[in-house]
Amino acid sequence: MPVQEDDVVNGRALKQKPVSRWWWMAALGVVVSGCRTTGSAAREEPQAKSPKQEFHFDAVTVTADLELDKLNDEELFAGGTSAFAANDFQQAARYFGRLVDFFPDSRHRRAALYNAGLAHQRIKEWEEAGHRFSELSDPARGQGDALDAAFRVAEVDYHLERYEQASKLLGIIAAREDLPLNRRLEAQVQQGICQLESGSPETAEATLRKALSTYDALEDKGEVDDYFPAQAHFFIGELYRLHYEGVKLDPAKGADKLAQDLNYKAELLLSAQGHYLRSIRVGNGYWATAAGTQIGSLYENLYEHMVNSPAPAELDASEAEIYRQELRKKIRVLLTKSINIYERTLETAERIGSQSTFVDRTRESLAKVKALLLADAEGEPASAAPSSGGEPHT
Fold first, then answer.
1. φ, ψ for residue 374 (rounded to 5)?
2. 180: how many CB neighbours lie within 10 A of its CB?
3. What is the mean pLDDT of residues 85-93?
4. Distances (CA, A) of 128 to 17, 20, 42, 64, 156
5. How far apart are alpha carbons 224 and 208 in whole angstroms?
6. Cα–Cα distance measured from residue 91 to residue 120, given in angstroms and rounded to the nearest whole number
7. What is the pLDDT of residue 377?
8. What is the mean pLDDT of the chain?
9. How many CA within 13 A on the CB side of residue 229?
10. Taken in order 78, 80, 82, 84, is the CA torsion positive or negative?
11. How far apart are CA 265 and CA 250, in angstroms?
12. Which tens digit of pLDDT belongs to each residue from 259-308?
């Protein structure tokens, strides 16, 4: 569930889990000692002795952070802010966490609570991040930090694969009429992604299409961030890609069944491609690059399926040879399409300055597919080599 990196704002948005576990142990000790009576303060009538009971607990090691012990809340907040700005997120979590746990009345506590969550999140300490954000989170009524924290809790749940929990929380936010449309759309798109991850593709598609219907109905598309409609189209493309991958080509079932499955697989490829192209047209650089990469990989994947598929068993030797020749022609088309799409994706990424894992994957895939096409051309007469001109039909 990708998020945008807009986390740190001076004084506030560098914003920790409730009281640490060892603190609860200390509180337990106070309660136990408070139950004892000594001297003449309490007289008890003689009574029958009950059997002696012993309780054994695991050993608990309590460690103090002596380095931070002498700092007040102002110094802790300044130290945490400085560490966060320097990308030392482990140190930032220490400073902000100390402030939250030991200075409950500090004017910086809410900001430190949020920033401690961010710091843990940056170093993928998801449980710790969730504890901090949860104290602030109010998905039903929250604004500002409380609303941002609710989104962060959902993101933590996503990374911990608690998809249904994340989906439920995001659904609460998406249903709030008091929020700006952009925030509701954000919640709805991310809810659809969580539903997909939880194994409910039909529900996910309905949620994502509902979000896109809202976006399409806007007269002023600038009213919302283009990140979220582009993301919605991308993940509907992913739905169809998953359907595509579920269709297996099995020559053992015969030529007719193989042709039927191949046609159906190609239809699903085109459906996925259609949504990836819509994602590109929305105009968000990140998702445009991601969608272009996925289109190219679909053609590359179909090529691999076809080239590794043996001829149907009922074909004799001459028929099998004709089958392989026809297959090679289709394979060249797939490779050429894939190369064109990868190249156009990289051109777009370079033009907008996009850097992501999708861009790296595209470069690697482009080199691989060019090598495959070259190897295929070297195995055939020169006249059979595919033309490099023209745009692919997509």
1. -65, -45
2. 11
3. 97
4. 6, 10, 45, 19, 10
5. 15
6. 10
7. 64
8. 79
9. 22
10. negative
11. 12
12. 888 889 889 988 998 899 899 889 888 898 888 888 888 888 887 877 77
Report residue 385 as tokens.
Answer: 């080599």
Extract long-range pairs of 370-374: CB within 8 Å, 24+ residues apart.
Answer: 370/339, 372/303, 372/335, 373/332, 373/335, 373/336, 373/339
Q: In terms of residues, how long is the chain?
A: 394
Banded pLDDT at 56 (limits 50, 70, 90): low
How confident is the model at residue 111, as a pLDDT?
97
Token pair for 302 = 């179909």
More confident call, 30 vs 142: 142
State the SS3 of the chain: CCCCCCCCCCCCCCCCCCCCHHHHHHHHHHHHHHCCCCHHHCCCCCCCCCCCCCCCCCCCCCCCCHHHHCCCHHHHHHHHHHHHHCCCHHHHHHHHHHHHHHCCCCCCHHHHHHHHHHHHHHCCCHHHHHHHHHHHCCCCCCCCHHHHHHHHHHHHHHHCCCHHHHHHHHHHHHCCCCCCHHHHHHHHHHHHHHHHHCCCHHHHHHHHHHHHHHHHCCCCHHHCCCHHHHHHHHHHHHHHHHHHHHCCCCHHHCHHHHHHHHHHHHHHHHHHHHHHHHHHHHCCHHHHHHHHHHHHHHHHHHHHHHHCCCCCCCCCHHHHHHHHHHHHHHHHHHHHHHHHHHHHHHHHHHHHCCCCHHHHHHHHHHHHHHHHHHHHHHCCCHHHCCCCCCCCCC
Signed CA dihedral, 212, 216, 217, 221: sign only: positive
Chain segment 346-358, per-residue pLDDT in tens: 777 777 676 667 7
Chain segment 193-206, per-residue pLDDT in tens:
999 999 999 999 99
pLDDT surpassing 60 at residue 368: yes
Sort 243 into a burial class: Cβ within 10 Å, 0-12 / 13-18 / 19+: middle
